[in-house]
């Protein structure tokens, strides 16, 4: 359910509670903690999503990307990759 919440209304409600200074400070600290945690989670999620979808818009096929990576190696050096099945 989506609801439109007026922050002014929430603030008015909090003022109507007659909270002590320490209660207000506690509430403020809790809100700041939650906001910081949400920002960190979002930042991490944005980073992961950016890495996972880095090539999703690339029109090349997987084979073309692999060929480009292989051809971009410097000094003609390449690693010989062996399959585990070859060792039996």
Commentary on this structure:
This protein is mostly helical and 88 residues long. The chain is built from 3 helices and no strands. It has helices at 7-16, 21-52, 62-71.
Q: Topology of this protein?
A:
Elements: H1 7-16, H2 21-52, H3 62-71
In short:
The protein is mainly alpha-helical and 88 residues long. It is built from three helices and no strands.
List keywords for this structure.
single chain; 0% strand; mainly alpha; 88 residues
The rounded Rg comes to: 27 Å
Mean pLDDT: 81
Low-confidence stretches: none
Helical percentage: 55-70%
Largest sheet: none
β content, as a range? under 5%
Structural class: mainly alpha
| Terminal residue distance | 59 Å
Number of helices: 3
What is the string of helix and strand elements? Answer: HHH
Number of strands: 0
Shape: elongated
């Amino acid at each position: 359910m989506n609801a439109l919440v007026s922050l002014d209304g929430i603030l008015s409600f909090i003022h109507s509670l007659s909270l002590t200074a320490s209660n207000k400070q506690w509430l403020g600290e809790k809100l700041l903690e939650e906001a910081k945690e949400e920002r960190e989670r979002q930042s991490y999620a944005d980073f992961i999503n950016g890495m996972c979808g880095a090539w999703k818009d690339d029109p090349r096929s997987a084979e073309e990307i692999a060929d480009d990576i292989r051809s971009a190696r410097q000094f003609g050096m390449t690693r010989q990759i062996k399959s585990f099945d070859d060792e039996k």
